[in-house]
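Chapter review. Work through the record for Excinuclease ABC subunit A before attempting the end-of-chapter questions.
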Amino acid sequence: MLVEKFDFLEFLRLAIAQGDSGKKISKSIVLGEIALLHKHARMWAELLVEKVGFERIALITPAEKIYETIMINGVSSRKRIDDIPGKVEIRQGNVQSANFFRVRNQLAAKIHKEMVKNNFKPNNAQGDLSNIAKGVAEVVLRGHVTVKAMCSACQGLGKLELFNDKGYPCGVKPCQKCEGAGKRSYTLHEKITIAKLKVSKSGYSERYAKYELLGESIVAQWENEIRDRLCRAFHFEFEESEVAIA
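Structure tokens for Excinuclease ABC subunit A:
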């Protein structure tokens, strides 16, 4: 019997989406388990089940009329010869979620503490280290809760199905292109823009990337705590009569 490993973070989202249906696994029960987590892991779990969107900024360019000045019997007059239509351009603004910035500040505090410990001296710093730590923390969180684009190789699943010589499915493997995330990661240029830094790509890789990895490790700890809590709360084993023998 092939039993695929199930990520309890996805279980968390599915239970919330299911609502209070009166079943053993419902929204209220899962929210009750979330409330028993430690502060930072609980805040992260609440953010994971929230739909994080962006502000929509409309840039309006008004219509413009083009005139031509002509002279008739020594008298000048204006004649409209063309019109340039107006347009509305929609751009993406800041993240529209208070919970997102609460979690970002908690993560930034840990990154800032490590920066001070290492006596980190940034180049072209805009403000103090706390602003830089918030920028790096936002890069980390955006990579988890906002989708830049779906991975084309695995169609957003984060895994690829394997087939044997006879064409039957025999397992799955993580997608190497998106590293199992199911979505495209941000480029170095985009990370620098999000963090509001004035550094080169090589400068970010050499000096700031290690603090991004620190943020990723902290988020991984929060997610492991969520998984362990949900796994213990909803653990079950197959009865012998329920196991299908191929």
